[in-house]
Amino acid sequence: MPQSATKPFIDVLSGQRQSIPPMWMMRQAGRYLPEYREVRAKAGGFLDLCFNPELAAEVTLQPIRRFGFDAAIIFSDILVIPHALGRSVRFEVGEGPRLDPLDDPAKVATLAARADFVKLKPVFEALKLVRAALDPKTALIGFCGAPWTVATYMVAGQGTPDQAPARMMAYRHPEAFSKIVDVLVESSIQYLLLQLEAGANALQIFDTWAGVLPPAEFARWSVEPTRRIVEGVRAKVPDAKIIGFPRGAGAQLPAYVEATGVNAVSIDWTAEPGFIRERVQSKVAVQGNLDPLVLITGGAALDRAVDDVLANFAQGRFIFNLGHGIQPETPIVHVEQMIRRVRG
Ligand code: CP3
């Protein structure tokens, strides 16, 4: 029996619907868990935690032990790639990431062409530790940010409400902006391949800021670089299972799926169910899309929202997840309530 036949999550990505949808949560290792906060406090900085293989493996496994999810996602961050490219990346408590802005062509000219993957060795070590500790039925997900989303942080040096600095730079200096994207495409391909080698069973490409782009820019900066990454990974690992998450892509999801060749798309909570079933789930597996705010709310509203997600998508190839990451203030009992409702 092929190994994947023992993992419901991988089976869905391979095209086989499961009667009980496999489930996990974006940001499932995180501040809503007391055991995470404890490890986080003793690790020092956020990147120190990402680059400590034992501790990163421990926090990756915490939500699996507590909730028995069908997939673990390696504890790391999309901004480890700029770090490996030699950019300064810091995480200030309560403020999110801070990078040295890469906001004009002269600065882009100094950007390294290649990432130094020696710097990311602890991530690969953590993947090995997690894969060895996981039940064979539980999948391990590796990930990277999509070039567009990673570039938005590299250009602005931080998160902004609508990532205007990167959008402006892409209009004003398309050649310099392309160079950033090209470097990210190449390093992401290598990074994902190294994660597969270290034990990842599937990959997710996070394009958190896809939804701020007009259609033509979306095609150029979100879809095309993602397509190149999928192609580059599959050139070495033809059956690599890849999930795309172009958050906010809305009506452009069918074009994204068609062009990129992903095995599944993760959809946010604004997606229109009939449209998704007809135009997206008919082609690939769908993952999502409970509103993280209803998970904070709990009660009857949560039950109703979980039932809606299942009614909308569980007749097809489906992985139950949130529409974006779980929020730190989410009560753990609500996560338990959601799991009971899904697994019935
Ligand atoms: O459990 C998991 O999902 C795996 C770990 C993971 C993290 N970041 C850990 C993290 C993953 C998959 C990410 C991806 C990521 N990182 C994205 C794409 C997905 C998304 O949520 O939109 C983005 C845009 C980033 C960049 C990033 N990292 C931001 C904007 C922030 C600050 C916001 C925040 O929540 O504090 C981070 C920090 C971060 N990455 C935390 C965690 C658990 C919180 C920091 C902490 O614990 O101190």
From TrEMBL:
<comment type="function">
    <text>Catalyzes the decarboxylation of four acetate groups of uroporphyrinogen-III to yield coproporphyrinogen-III.</text>
</comment>
<dbReference type="Pfam" id="PF01208">
    <property type="entry name" value="URO-D"/>
</dbReference>
<comment type="similarity">
    <text>Belongs to the uroporphyrinogen decarboxylase family.</text>
</comment>
<keyword id="KW-0210">Decarboxylase</keyword>
<feature type="binding site">
    <location>
        <begin position="27"/>
        <end position="31"/>
    </location>
    <ligand>
        <name>substrate</name>
    </ligand>
</feature>
<comment type="pathway">
    <text>Porphyrin-containing compound metabolism; protoporphyrin-IX biosynthesis; coproporphyrinogen-III from 5-aminolevulinate: step 4/4.</text>
</comment>
<keyword id="KW-0963">Cytoplasm</keyword>
<feature type="domain" description="Uroporphyrinogen decarboxylase (URO-D)">
    <location>
        <begin position="141"/>
        <end position="157"/>
    </location>
</feature>
<keyword id="KW-0627">Porphyrin biosynthesis</keyword>
<keyword id="KW-0456">Lyase</keyword>
<feature type="domain" description="Uroporphyrinogen decarboxylase (URO-D)">
    <location>
        <begin position="22"/>
        <end position="31"/>
    </location>
</feature>
<feature type="binding site">
    <location>
        <position position="77"/>
    </location>
    <ligand>
        <name>substrate</name>
    </ligand>
</feature>
<protein>
    <recommendedName>
        <fullName>Uroporphyrinogen decarboxylase</fullName>
        <ecNumber>4.1.1.37</ecNumber>
    </recommendedName>
</protein>
<dbReference type="InterPro" id="IPR000257">
    <property type="entry name" value="Uroporphyrinogen_deCOase"/>
</dbReference>
<feature type="binding site">
    <location>
        <position position="324"/>
    </location>
    <ligand>
        <name>substrate</name>
    </ligand>
</feature>
<comment type="subunit">
    <text>Homodimer.</text>
</comment>
<dbReference type="InterPro" id="IPR038071">
    <property type="entry name" value="UROD/MetE-like_sf"/>
</dbReference>
<dbReference type="InterPro" id="IPR006361">
    <property type="entry name" value="Uroporphyrinogen_deCO2ase_HemE"/>
</dbReference>
<feature type="binding site">
    <location>
        <position position="153"/>
    </location>
    <ligand>
        <name>substrate</name>
    </ligand>
</feature>
<dbReference type="GO" id="GO:0019353">
    <property type="term" value="P:protoporphyrinogen IX biosynthetic process from glutamate"/>
</dbReference>
<dbReference type="GO" id="GO:0004853">
    <property type="term" value="F:uroporphyrinogen decarboxylase activity"/>
</dbReference>
<feature type="site" description="Transition state stabilizer">
    <location>
        <position position="77"/>
    </location>
</feature>
<dbReference type="GO" id="GO:0005829">
    <property type="term" value="C:cytosol"/>
</dbReference>
<feature type="binding site">
    <location>
        <position position="208"/>
    </location>
    <ligand>
        <name>substrate</name>
    </ligand>
</feature>
